[in-house]
Each structure stands twice: as structure tokens, then as C-alpha cells.
Specification:
Elements (H helix, E strand, L loop, with lengths): L23 E9 L3 E6 L7 H5 L5 E5 L5 E13 L3 H4 L5 H10 L1 E13 L7 E2 L9 E4 L2 H8 L6 E7 L7 E4 H6 L2 E4 L6 H15 L3 E6 L8 E2 L5 E2 L2 H4 L5 E5 L2 H6 L10 E2 L5 H5 L2 H4 L3 H14 L3 H6 L3 H12 L5 H10 L1 H4 L4 E2 L6 H10 L3 E5 L7 H27 L9 E6 L2 H4 L8 H7 L6 E7 L7 H5 L3 E4 L5 H7 L6 H9 L6 E6 L6 E5 L4 H29 L1
Parallel strand pairs: 10-19, 10-20, 11-17, 11-18, 14-17, 15-16, 18-19
Antiparallel strand pairs: 1-2, 1-7, 2-5, 3-4, 3-7, 4-5, 5-6, 8-9, 8-22, 12-13, 20-21, 21-22
Helix pairs in contact: 16-17
């Protein structure tokens, strides 16, 4: 479909004095593919007003002389002049200023070309050239954006709107979002949790993947209130128990908050391996000698090694003392481990006797399409508890997925349902020192080899290993003010230099720069409201799916009795 743009010489103003989408804003006067294009802005009805209305992050479309259309993003705006004396002798009256703006002064914008639509093509392609001198630049309109980002359907989820284009939806390709590990980044207070919750709503609604959410701060399962007292629904309130289960580590806290849960998580002491704890070396200040001692104790004491290490029983302590007397362990090392492991005594979810195979239960739920929110309750205040549980469960569930995928290769069973694991404080799991040796680093590097990916949520992306960051397919980035964090989110991104200024100009809340695998080009959005409109959309979709399932079940009954 060919889209005709109305390149008027003048632009009309609405009540907010904003630029009307599709209206001409300027002319290409220079630039390059690597450094971006230079646009001389039109004067407008009020000379000089165009520059005040063209925001960094805004979309523009350039019509080339060969009927190519270049989709670009504004990366900078500046003031220019044709007479150097203006700087030392500015106009002294408003009338003179207007004359200067009409003749000697003008606005300039830098735009980065991202995609190009060739003549006769329906699909935009990566840009490999640039438009000619004096090509016309116009604001992108709704049809332009729709052609690039697609219309909302079962595969595309509405995530927000471009800057100053409140009625134009930006859609994320959910298939591509879950295809590789993704990340949500931003400093504290920028709305990471709300954006994450919105994305998870889309994934669950579309059944593109099951989600295992390690809910450190109890943000996702049930309703929460913001600093102004407004209440927002949790994922289980949006869906039902057939789509989302809430499992708690802390039943007392869940009950105190009035939250229903679908089960309590208990981990047996005797199922814990040194690998489950070794990743905590940093937060527990375990030395290499102390970590090696854990593996020694496991070999000599068997499955009960941790119980005996924490036991007050004299016989258990005598057994440990014997290792010291034999020279297998240093007394100081053993004592240090026992002191540092006191924290495990306070983890009430660790129990001696657990009848249910928790891991198998979770795997069956996830593989059947049920997403799991694991609420930590008061244990969310303990980073060691959070890291331990996330590592313990992820290692074992990933193993189940590897086994199921390998069986599927032999056509013995169907492939496991895609899984996205959501972790907060991701840099603690993926820092350069440990990421190569942890299950989380393994999952990130595997891409989607075993149908498992990560959604990492973090305010310090610079703490994540560079190799892992290079595997993050889609990056949703809110405001960051630390230079190393900014540099990290742009790692491996082409045209990063032109986008840095765009990221720096984001509002403190409800704005994000999305780039990578799930979007055809970088886009700055005002994120959609997590509120009644989304709730209604989810409700309608859920009812429709239930209706479809009932029809299928009835058809089977009619056919087979």
C-alpha cells in the first residue's frame, strides 16, 4: 500500500500548539548515514516556533527523490544563524527579533535514519543509504507508524504511544519478545514494575509463553498501591487461576495483606546442593576455600550435609569436628561457614520433611500454560533468600525443560511450552564474576534453545556481564542517569551514539526507549496506562478464549461422545 503524505508548506496548530502529524517540518541539508541527517527547520507561521515543537525522540519521515521513504528519529535540535554578529549583538526589541528569525536565524534538527520503505515494497528494511539534499521532512502520521510497527492483533501488543502522538499505538511483536531474553531497565522510581507488569499482561493474554515471576517486592500477583494511594490490579486479578497462580514463601504475610494464594512453597533441606548456594558467595562473603568446603561436606555427608552443618545435635557436631581433626577441614573455615549460614535458619520455607515434589508441580503448571507468581513476602527484604530461591528453582526447572526438549527431538513428546523467567536485581545473578557459571548466564547465552528465556528487571545494567547484555534481544529502558548504565544498555546497538541523547531526555516516569528484537526500530513511548482500559481488554480476551475452549470441548463431545 502506498501512503500519500500531505507536504504542506505551512503547518496547522491544534489547541495545544503541537505539530500536526504528517505536516512538513523542514528540508535535508546535510549529514551521513553513520552520524545522522541534518534538517533545516521551516520557519512556520510564527518564525522560529518549529524548534520549540519538535521534541527529541519524535518520529519523522523523509521522502527521497527516488520515492523511498526514510523513517527517522529526532536525536537533537539546535539554534543556528547566518551572521556571527547575532551572538554579540542580539536584537533589542520583539519586532527586531522576529525579523532576525525570519531572515538570519533558523532552527536545525539532527535525525537518525532507521528504516527505509522501498518503492513498491510493503515491508520497511534496514537503512543502507540516505535521502538526497533538499528532501522534504515531515512528521510521521498514524499510517506511517502502523506500517512500521504493525497493528494490534494476537501477535502484536499495544505497549504505548510515540511522543506527542497520543492516539497512535506502538505495538510490540510478542513472538519476537519471548524468542530471546529481554530486559527492562531504569533507575529507581521510573516505573519499571508497571512496564514489566504491562508486558507480562500481554504475554499471558496471548499465551505466547508461561511466566515464572520471582516477585521480590510482591508487586505482580495481587493489587498494589502507588505513593498517591491509587490501587492497581495484580496479574491474578486480571486473569484467573487457570492462567495465573500465586505461590507464596510467606503465608502469614499473604494472609495479613488479605491476598489469596494457590499454595505455599517449601524447600527440603536434603534437596539443596552446594551449587544452589555457591552463587551467594558474594553476598555471604564466602571465600573460595569456604565454597570448596561445601562440596567436600556434600561428598562426605551425603544429602544431609546442610542439615548437619546447621544442626545443634552433638553427634552431628562431632562428625564435623572429626573432619577438622583429620585435617580435611580447617576449624576456622568450618566455623566461618556455620556463622554465615545462620541466615538459612531464618528461612522458614526450608523444612526437613516436604512430601510434595515442588519442582515437578511447578514444571507441570508452567508446561500447561499457567504462569506462576512466586511472592516472597517478608523474605523479599533478604537478598540472600531471594537469590537462593531463584537459583534453586531455576536450575531444576531448566533441567526439566532441557530433558523435555531433548525428548521432543526424538518425537517422543511435544515440545515444552515456552517459558519466560522474570528476575529483579538481575545484576546480582549476572555480574561478570559469576554469570558464566550460573544458570541465568547459561539461559541468556542459549537464546531459546530449550524454550526458556529471561526477562531481567534492573536499575544497574552496568553490573550485568557484557556478554549477557549482548544476548538481550529487546531492551525497554526508562530514564538512567549513570553514564556506565547508559553505555551498557546501548552495548551492541547500532547507532547508539545518536540515541544516547534521546534516552537522556526521557521523563522521570511513564516514558521509555524500546529497541531491539521485538520492534523494527527504536521508539520512545509514553507507556500505556496500567488501568481500567487494559483491565477491560484483558477481560474481553479471557472471556473470548474461554468461549472458544468451550466450543472446542463441545465439538469433541459431539464427535466422540
Amino acid at each position: 500500500m502506498t501512503i500519500e503524505l500531505d507536504f504542506e508548506n505551512d503547518f496547522s496548530e491544534n489547541q495545544d500548539n503541537a505539530i500536526t502529524p504528517g505536516i512538513r517540518v523542514g528540508t535535508i541539508v546535510g549529514g551521513s548515514l553513520s552520524k545522522g541527517l541534518i534538517v533545516k527547520l521551516d520557519a512556520g507561521e510564527l518564525p522560529g516556533s518549529m524548534i520549540e515543537q519538535l521534541a527529541v525522540g519524535r518520529y519523522v519521515v523523509v521522502r527521497g527523490l527516488t520515492e523511498r521513504r526514510f523513517f527517522c528519529i529526532v536525536t537533537d535540535v539546535s539554534l543556528e544563524h547566518t551572521n556571527p554578529s547575532i551572538e554579540s549583538n542580539p536584537p533589542e526589541t520583539a519586532d527586531m527579533a522576529e525579523i532576525y528569525r525570519s531572515t538570519l536565524a533558523y532552527g536545525k534538527a539532527n535525525v537518525a535514519p532507521m528504516l527505509v520503505l522501498e518503492r513498491g515494497s510493503k515491508e520497511p528494511k534496514p537503512v543502507k543509504t540516505i535521502p538526497a539534499h533538499f528532501s522534504i521532512v515531515a512528521q510521521a502520521n498514524e499510517e506511517d507508524v502502523a506500517q512500521v510497527f504493525g497493528k494490534e492483533d494476537s501477535d502484536h501488543f499495544y505497549i504505548g504511544n510515540p511522543i506527542e502522538m497520543d492516539q497512535v499505538p506502538i505495538n510490540v511483536n510478542l513472538d519476537r519478545f519471548v524468542e530471546r531474553s529481554s530486559g527492562v531497565f531504569g533507575k529507581s522510581g521510573t516505573g519499571k514494575s508497571f512496564i514489566t507488569r504491562t508486558l507480562l499482561s500481554g504475554i499471558i493474554k496471548s499465551s505466547k509463553a508461561s511466566c515464572l515471576i520471582f516477585d521480590m517486592h510482591n508487586d505482580y500477583g495481587w493489587a498494589i498501591k502507588n505513593e498517591h494511594g491509587s490501587e492497581y490490579k495484580g496479574l491474578q486479578q486480571l486473569f484467573d487461576a487457570n492462567r495465573v497462580n500465586v505461590i507464596t514463601l510467606d503465608p502469614k504475610t499473604s494472609q495479613a495483606r488479605g491476598n489469596r494464594h494457590d499454595g505455599a512453597l517449601h524447600i527440603p533441606y536434603d534437596a539443596i546442593e552446594p551449587e544452589d548456594i555457591a552463587m551467594l558467595a558474594g553476598v555471604l562473603t564466602l571465600s573460595e576455600v569456604q565454597v570448596n568446603a561445601l562440596y567436600f561436606l556434600r561428598r562426605r555427608l551425603g544429602r544431609k550435609w546442610l542439615r548437619k552443618l546447621l544442626s545443634n545435635d552433638e553427634n552431628d557436631q562431632s562428625e564435623l569436628d572429626e573432619f577438622v581433626q583429620q585435617g580435611d577441614l580447617i576449624k576456622g573455615t568450618l566455623g566461618a561457614i556455620q556463622r554465615k549460614f545462620e541466615i538459612f535458619r531464618r528461612m522458614g520455607f526450608l523444612q526437613t520433611n516436604v512430601s510434595e515434589d515442588l519442582v515437578e508441580t511447578l514444571f507441570q503448571k508452567l508446561n500447561s500454560g499457567i504462569s506462576i507468581v512466586l511472592e516472597f513476602g517478608t523474605y523479599g527484604d533478604s537478598l540472600p533468600a531471594y537469590m537462593f530461591v531463584a537459583n534453586y528453582l531455576t536450575r531444576r526447572i531448566h533441567h526439566r525443560y532441557v530433558d523435555a526438549k531433548n525428548k521432543a527431538f526424538g518425537d517422543k513428546v511435544d515440545e515444552p511450552n515456552p517459558l519466560m523467567i522474570v528476575i529483579e536485581e538481575a545484576h546480582k545473578f549476572l555480574d561478570p564474576e559469576i554469570s558464566r557459571h550460573t544458570i541465568f548466564g547459561t539461559i541468556a547465552r542459549e537464546l531459546r534453545k530449550y524454550n526458556v528465556t529471561l526477562l531481567v528487571v534492573d536499575q544497574r545494567p552496568s553490573g550485568i556481564d557484557d556478554e549477557v547484555m549482548s544476548q538481550i534481544g529487546t531492551r525497554v529502558t526508562c530514564l538512567l542517569d549513570n553514564e556506565s548504565d547508559i553505555r551498557s544498555v546501548f552495548s551492541g546497538v547500532s547507532g547508539a551514539s545518536s540515541l544516547r541523547e534521546v534516552l537522556a531526555r526521557l521523563d522521570t516516569q511513564q516514558q521509555a526507549l524500546i529497541m531491539g528484537h521485538a520492534v523494527p526500530m527504536p521508539v520512545v513511548i509514553r507507556t500505556r496506562d496500567y488501568g481500567p482500559a487494559l483491565y477491560e481488554e484483558i477481560s474481553q480476551r479471557t472471556h473470548q478464549m474461554q468461549s472458544d475452549e468451550d466450543k472446542v470441548a463441545q465439538a469433541k463431545t459431539d464427535l466422540f461422545g
